[in-house]
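forwarding from the other thread:

> can someone predict this with MTE?

sure thing
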Amino acid sequence: MTDAPILIIDGLVSRPRTFTPRDLDELPEEGKVPDVSRYHPNRRGSGVTLEAILSEVGPKPEANYLTLHADRDDFHVSIPLNAVRGEGIVVYRLGERELDLKDGGPVRFLIKDPTACHSSELDDCANVKFLSRIEFSERKGLDTRPTTEDEHAALHEGE
Ligand SMILES: Nc1nc2c(c(=O)[nH]1)N[C@H]1C(S)=C(S)[C@@H](COP(=O)(O)O)O[C@H]1N2
Ligand SMILES: [Mo]
């Protein structure tokens, strides 16, 4: 595992910071998610809850939205903090190794119980791969999720 930062948290939080895999490993046990296949049978890896990260950074009272940024392919999703609280998981390991690109690594966001694509704020499309930064803001931020079936098909074509 690399010791380099893999995730940036910034915007409206009391303690903006970066996390290395070791930093994430050191979060309290109750924030650990040992195996994401219990939520999504076809997905692999382990990680921590979004809630555990929120406890570290302390979102400010006016932080209504969080935006999940994937710089690698310029994909972005912005969802209300209240809706995703308790639902979000940050996956960054597969056993003792880092999560592969083909699993959406090195960091992948997962929603425990997402709805079908473009049917809600917390849909499958919000399961952001290659997550590099989580930004907190008062208003909704950048959201590049596909909004039509055609856009969606085109996005998956490129995978
Ligand atoms: N970085 C990034 N994350 C992404 C996407 C993408 O194009 N780039 N596509 C989204 C969409 S539209 C869907 S439906 C899911 C698909 O995830 P899966 O390939 O693991 O099923 O990933 C989401 N996460
Ligand atoms: Mo999607």
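Residues 21 and 79 are 25 Å apart (CA to CA). thats all i got for now
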